[in-house]
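Contributing new records

If you add data, match the layout below exactly. Sequence lines come first and carry their own label; structure lines follow with theirs. Keep one chain per record. Anything else will be rejected by the validation script.
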Amino acid sequence: MAWDIGSKQNNLFRRSRWQLTIWYTGVMSVVMGISAMGVYEAIAHAHRVTADRELRAVAKAIHNTIEETLISGGRVDDVSPNILPNLCMLGHLCLETTTDPGDVSPSIHNHPSDVLTSSGYYNGSYYIRVLAPTGKLIATAGMNPQGLTVTEPDFSFQTLWDDNGNEYHQMAFPLYTSDVGLNPKLPQATLLVGRSFSDFATYLANTRRMILLSIPLTMGLIALASWWLAGRAMKPIQLSYQKIQQFTADAAHELRTPLAAIQATTESVNRLPNISDADARELTQVLSRQNQRLTTLVNDLLFLSRLDAQQLPPMKVCCLQDILSDIVEELAALALSKTIGLTLKQPDQPLIYVLGNEEQLYQLIINVISNALQYTPQKGTITIGLKQQEKQAIITIQDTGIGIAAQDLPRIFDRFYRVDRNRSRQQGGSGLGLSIALAIAHAHHGHIAVESAVGVGSQFTITLLARGQALL
C-alpha cells in the first residue's frame, strides 16, 4: 500500500511537471514568436527607411543636376556620363533594351564603357526616366525594368511592381527652366527616379530563413529549460505534500492510541456482568486521562493551525524577566521531584522587553524547558539564561540531558517527531511541543536554534526582537 501511494504521488507530480512544461513552452513560444516578428518588422522597417532616404538623396542630387542643365542649355544629354551613365535619348535604339533588376549593364546603350557602379550617386539598383509634359518618355538611364509605367505619376512617391513581381520605390520631381520664351512656372519635364528592392527582398528572405531554422533549436532549448524550471517549481510543493502526508499519518497515529484505549475500556466494562464502585472509578479515571490526552492534542493542533493562518491575538510590550521568573517558579516543584537543578541567570537591570503576546511567549519558553526536563536524567542541571545583544533578546536553555544525535537535529521541530518514540510515549506528550515553540517564535519574528551532543546535553537558543523601555 505504501508503494502504491508513493507511485500515485510520483505519477501526480510527474503529470503536473509535464503540464507545467507544456504551459511554459507554449507561453515562451508565443513570446518568442511575437518577439521574432517584432525584430523582423523592425529590421524590415529600418532597411526600408534607409533605402527610401537614400532614394530621396539620389533623386534630389540628380534632379538638381538635370535642372541646371535645362537652365543652361535645355538639353538632358548635356549631363555628364558620371551623373547619368548609359543615358539614352528619345529615338535611340537603347530605349528598346531590357535589363533585369540584377543586371547593371544593358545589352545596347550609347556608352559601352559606362557602368552604373561608377556613379557617385547611385548603383545598379536605380533607374532614371525623364518625361515630357505630355507624359512621353524622352530619356532614360540606369536600369530598364519591364512592366513599370512610364507615364507621369499622380503622386510624388509610389511603390510599383514589374512583370516579375519585383518591388520598386519611385519618386517624381518636376523640372523647370529659365530659358527665354518659356514660362518658368510651368514644368518642362518630369524626373522619375526609382530603386529596385530586390536586394532588400533577398535580405529579408535570408532573415526569415534564419528565423525559421532557429525555431526548432530555440523550441528545444525552451522545452529543456521549462522541464528544469518545472522540476524546480514542483520541488517545494512536493516537499510540502510529503510533509502533509507525514503529518496526517502522525496525527492519525497519535489519535489512534487514546481512542483505542477508550474503546478497550468501554468493551471491558460491557463484558463485566457486575462492576464495583472502585472499578467504576478506575475506569472513569482511565477514560478521563485518555479524554484529556485527546483534548490536549486537538487544542495543540488548533493552536498550530491558527499560527499557520497568522491569526495572532493583540500584542503588547512584555518583560522577559517577569515571564522567566514565573516559569521557573511554576516548574520548580517538578524539577525538585526529579532531583534536577533548575537555575535562572538573568540581569535585574536593565529590564528586557519584547513586543508580543504574553501567553504565547510563556508557552514558547515553557515548552522548551519542559522538553529539557523530560530528557534530563536525575541529578542533572538545567540553566536558563537571558541577555540582550544590541536589539536582540536572547534566551538560552542549557541542560545536561541525553542529547540529540546529529541526524535527528534537523527534524526535532517537525510535528509529531520524537527522537525516542517509546520513551516519549511513556513520559507523555504529543510530540508538538517544540513545533509549537518554533511557530510562536516565527510569529514573533524570532527564531530557535539548537546545539546538542549525545550524552552531553543540549542548548536551545531563542532569539527575539528586543524593545526599549520607552515603548511602555
